[in-house]
Design brief:
The protein is α+β, with helices and mostly antiparallel strands. The protein has a single domain, classed as Jelly Rolls (Sandwich). Helices cover about 25% and strands about 30% of the residues. The chain has a seven-stranded antiparallel beta sheet, covered by helices on one side. A four-stranded antiparallel beta sheet has the order 5-10-7-8, with no helix packed on it. Helix 2 packs across helix 4. The radius of gyration is 17 Å and the shape is globular. The protein starts with 7 loop residues before the first helix and ends in a 7-residue tail after the last strand. The structure holds N-oxalylglycine and manganese (II) ion (MN).
Length: about 210
């Protein structure tokens, strides 16, 4: 711990994660960093492909579950702008590993565009046959004026005191980052009424079952 400088933004996220298994932060990236990442996703719009679910090949079935188009980011081929993203994320990973012994060994990220009329039905991010996904991270790259009536809320389904479920609706505001437990938090993306931009990814530990 001796070489780590206390980072109040990371500390707040870690506190939230340990208390409630999710954290929403508007200060992880600066407005200028967010703006550059937003320009980068908009410029590359055409290189995206329909996102898949499991191993399903049928595009109609997939679209009834999720309608986003994605492009995986290859960290070894990152652009100048993507460097901004990975520098911060890798710093955060180091911090998690040094202060909380989280054992994050890998990460994977993709850009996501939800065209008008699309959504992602309720799901959990960790796969049944691969338990490495530990923390889900979504950085929103919309403009600041995103309003409730545009839809596209991230809805987290959280346990409440009576063992029932409560919903938390998160607006995808520019620069906002949502971080949550990949294994236990069901969530969905509500139908959008205008294109919705983000970078989504996962911090992964070593497999605990040895399946992978
Ligand atoms: C996902 C996902 C949430 C969001 O891609 O798995 O749940 O708010 N995304 O984009
Ligand atoms: Mn998800």
């Amino acid at each position: 711990m001796s070489n780590i400088t206390l980072n109040p933004i990371y500390e707040k996220i870690i506190d939230d994660l340990s208390n409630q298994k999710y954290s929403i932060s508007d200060f992880f990236f600066s407005p200028e960093e967010t703006k550059q990442l937003r320009e980068s996703i908009i410029q590359q719009d055409k290189d995206f492909h329909q996102a898949a679910i499991g191993n399903s090949q049928n595009e109609q079935i997939v679209k009834s579950v999720r309608g986003d188009k994605i492009r995986w980011i290859d960290e070894s081929q990152k652009s100048k702008t993507e460097e901004i993203f990975f520098e911060k994320i890798n710093d955060f990973i180091l911090y998690l590993n040094m202060t909380c012994y989280m054992g994050i060994e890998e990460s994977e990220f993709h850009y996501a565009i939800y065209p008008e009329g699309t959504f992602y039905q309720r799901h959990v991010d960790a796969f049944k046959n691969d338990d490495r996904r530990t923390l889900s991270i979504v950085l929103y790259l919309n403009d600041e004026e995103w309003k409730d009536e545009y839809g596209g809320q991230l809805t987290l389904y959280l346990p409440d005191e009576n063992n029932t479920e409560k919903e938390l609706n998160v607006l995808p505001l520019a620069g906002r980052i949502a971080i949550f437990d990949s294994k236990t938090i069901p969530h969905e993306v509500k139908k959008v009424n205008r294109p919705r931009y983000s970078i989504t990814g996962w911090l992964k530990t070593r497999s605990r079952t040895g399946v992978i």
